[in-house]
Structures are given as structure tokens and as C-alpha cells.
Amino acid sequence: MNDAQRLLSAIRDMAPDISRRGAEIEAARELPPDLLADLVNAGCFRMFVPRSHGGLEIDLASSLEIFEALARADGSTGWTVMIGAEGALLLALLPRKRFDALYADSPDLMAAGSFTPRGEAKVTAGGFEVTGRWPFASGCLHSKWLVGNCLVTENGHQRLGPLPDVPETRFVLFRTEQAQILDTWFVSGLRGTGSNDIAVERIHVSDEDTFEPFFGVSSVAGPLYAAAVPQFSLHVASVGLGIAQHAIDDIIALAGSQKRRLFAQAALADTPVFQHNLARSETSLRAARALLRSEAESFWAGVNGGRIPAFADRIRPAATGAWVVAAAAAVVDTCYAAGGGTSLYDSSPLQRHLRDIHTLTQHIVVADGWFTRAGAILLGKDPGFGVA
């Protein structure tokens, strides 16, 4: 049994208890400390850390299965682990000496942050003066390090980045104690992810604590680190699949309890319309999972063969992730509707799956706009990438 299989087995053992604690996780608005400790001890947050640094260095396809299993147990748990694990892929874009120092004490380092370019990094001697406030910093309450995406300015003007007419952005890394964590995470879904705002004002960040997220070159060798960001859409989609699978599990359990809709002649499980919709949803979910795995295998084959994806090649995984998430959301919608009035109550997990999946669909890495960019590339046109 390899590392990925051992971790997946451990997660499946933990899954029933995680599922039972779904309401508790939501109420806390973050993962309970004992659950977080169990996930750390299992190795969840060292998934993408190099073996040379005590990590598991799990391949892309295996990681998707792991994230789905976690999200099938609980959407917020799957999301929080995914974000925390991905940190190693981003931090690998730092200079190697700095990366080595960060992981010198433990492979279980946790970082949180935001891709939203809501910060300003003013060029100064040896680094940058950084001010910003960033939303959606999932896991920030238990992270030792934070990152924020910044527009780079020099002498009062925005610097241009590698794409024509697009401003330069850089991620900056800083300790959690240098920032304010603002209690803003009062939302409809994925409530247990602690995705609060983080803010800093006029802190100094050295050059070695910054990196370019989209076109930066990893200081760590290996296919896992060759192109981090395109993998994130596939990771997010795997969490969506887990939420949808849990919705199917729950509607089957509800139907098995002899659930009967008001004024219906037959129990839900004996209704042909329900049987038809259930089978279509389960088939759609299997198709979405197959597409996600196919895209992951194709991407992995390229980077494993030493091919660095061009900009156009990075759009397709995002479009794939967007399609998979949309398919997952449709599955959850069908399950929620089939539950009837029962689905409305806090006691029903179906309403939580509905809120979780439709929160996930709002994430920028699986936004509908990736289809437009993918279509533009198919037509040989500019995909229109910009910084908002």
C-alpha cells in the first residue's frame, strides 16, 4: 500500500465520525481543534510536500480521490484540507532556500490566503511595503503563515506583468501574527471553513517572501510542482463531486426510510419519476468523475514528461473543473428537490449540501467565464485574461 492509499484508507475510517459532526463544524465556523489534529496526524496537510522534506508528494489523480472522500464526509472539511494542502504547491514558487527554511521543522506547515488582488506591494529596498485586505482566506484561523495577492507599484505607478497590458501581481508571505483576522465568515455554505478576511497595513516583506503565482518557476523539482495553479480547478471540482456524492447517499437513505411525498400514492422509492431522476443524477456524477480523472491524467502525463503547460494549456483544466462543478451542483439540486419539505430543515443534510455546493460554484477557479476563455482559444482568439 502506497502513501496515497494509506491516507485514503485513514480518511475513509474517519469519514463516519466527520459526517456525524457536520452540524458541529458549521456551528463552529471552522474545524474543531481535535478534528484538525486528527487530519494533521493522518497526513492530510503534507500531501503535496516533497518527500525530501518529510511529505507524501501525492500525485494529482490520487489527490482528487482523497479530496472527494473528505468532502463526501463533510464539505467544509474537504474544502479546508484541500486549501491547506495546496499551500505547499504555492510555497514551492519561493526561492529554494526560503522553502527549505519554512519546512525545516515540520512537513505539516499550514498556510492560508487569497488569490484576490486586494493588496498593494510598493517596491522598496530589498522588498515591498504591503497593505491590503483579502477575503476568503480559508483556514486562516489555524495557519501559521498567510499569503495575499498584491498589485505591484513602483514610484506611484503599477508595473506591468508578463501578459500584455495586464498589471503585475505578486503573492506576499507573512506570519499570521503580522495580520488582522477579521471575523467576516457569515455565509450560506461551507460555513465550517473559517474563510475570514485577513488584513495588513504597511508591513515590510522581503523579496524572498514573494512569488509570481501564474508564471513563476518552482524551486522544487518534479511534475507536481511544474504548474501548480491549473491543478487547483481540478482540486475544487473533486470537492464538488464529494458533496454531490453525499447528496446521493442521503437521498437514497431518505427513500429507504419509506419517505412518501404529500398526497403521493406511493413511497418515494417506488415512484418511477424519482427512480429515473436518481439514475440520471448518479450517471451524471459518474460521467463528471470520469472527465475529471481523464483531464487530470492528461495534465499529469504532460508535466511528468517534462512539458511545462503554455498559457492556453492552463485554460482547459479550469474549463473542465467548471463543467464538473456545474454537473455536481445539478445533482445536488435534484436530490434536494426530491426530498420535498424534509429538505428545508436544518436537521436535513440535503439543505447543507445545497448551500455548500452553491457556495463552491462561486469560486473563481471554477467560474463560468473559463468556458468563454476556452472557446476563445479554440477559435485562435485572445482569451481576455485580466486583473480585477
Notes on the protein architecture:
The chain has 388 residues and is α+β, with helices and mostly antiparallel strands. It folds into three domains: 100 residues, Butyryl-Coa Dehydrogenase, subunit A, domain 1 (Orthogonal Bundle); 101 residues, Beta Barrel (Butyryl-CoA Dehydrogenase, subunit A, domain 2); 153 residues, Butyryl-CoA Dehydrogenase, subunit A, domain 3. Helices cover 47% and strands 15% of the residues. The chain has eleven helices and eight strands. Strands 1, 2, 3, 4, 5, 6, 7 and 8 form an eight-stranded mixed β-sheet that branches. A hairpin with a 2-residue loop joins strand 1 and strand 2. Helix 4 runs antiparallel to helix 5 and helix 5 runs antiparallel to helix 7. The longest helix is centred in the last third of the chain and has 33 residues. It starts with a helix and ends in a 10-residue tail after the last helix.
